[in-house]
Amino acid sequence: MDHVNTILKLLLDEAKTVSERSYSPYSGRKEGVIVLLEDGSMVPGVRVENASFQLTIPPLLNVITTLYALQRKDLSAIVSSVAFTEAELAYTSALSGYNWELVAQNVLMVAGAHVSDPTKMLTVTSTTELPTAEQGVIMARNAASFAFIPESNFPVGCAIKTESGDIVTAANIEHTDWSQIICAERNALSTAISYGLSETIELYVSCPKLVGGTPCGSCRQVIVELAPRATVWMDSGNAQPIAMNATELLPGHFTGDVLKRV
């Protein structure tokens, strides 16, 4: 047990470190979590706020949706830089396949899971020039196959490219509490922030069941705030992808600048 406590202390230190990556210009709250996988890999999640406050993504929701999009469900522990809220505990309790033990206000462990020594952060990025929009759309289509969609059966995939050339892919991840559902675009952007990546400059989105589908209103608000300089490419089947600037997606958008504390 002493060894496990040592591991949890290391994870807490990591959670506090990654919390500094939080996008929290409205509250100033820096919050982070670290998930330890059974093979020793770690995955971060941070708080990502939005000018439309109800679209704020808590760190726990951020990291779980990252993991689901990666098809990694071999969790052994989650450690937060702050105490888990009742809403977060309700969120995890509704995830099927896990028997959670709350061993401290900020520590959740999976009963019976193997607890390995932490090794390194799980890699979620690839690097490519993405010379054509079509190639980016193909990556988004492939990402859609990893969607977790028991509520809608409507898969969506997203690929983003950052200014430094990193590529992150994600899918929509659903939950029985519909307020906790994350679209593919928000999943990809919040994952990039958790990993401390540079600004997103290209975003590709694909709805395999709705050729020509475009980001929903919530995603448009998040995209225009987190990636205002991005070009958004939307899958249009066999035709050339449709491109729009992020700001064109939401004319007259609210920036929230007047609300910012930092």
Structural commentary:
- The protein is an alpha+beta fold and 262 residues long.
- The chain folds into 2 domains: 2-110, 3-Layer(aba) Sandwich (Cytidine Deaminase, domain 2), CATH 3.40.140; 125-257, Cytidine Deaminase, domain 2 (3-Layer(aba) Sandwich).
- Helix content is 28%, strand content 21%.
- The protein has a 6-stranded mixed beta sheet. The chain has a 5-stranded antiparallel beta sheet with strand order 2-1-3-5-4.
- A hairpin with a 7-residue loop joins β10 (231-234) and β11 (242-245).
- α2 crosses α5.
- The chain is globular, with a radius of gyration of 18 Å.
- The mean pLDDT is 94.
On the 0 to 100 scale, the average pLDDT is 94
Distance between the termini: 42 Å
Shape: globular
CATH architecture of the largest domain: 3-Layer(aba) Sandwich
Classification by helices and strands: alpha+beta
Question: What count of structural domains?
Answer: 2
Number of β-strand runs: 11
CATH level 4 superfamily of the largest domain = Cytidine Deaminase, domain 2
Largest sheet: 6 strands, mixed
- Count the helices. How many? 7
The helix fraction, in percent, is 25-40%
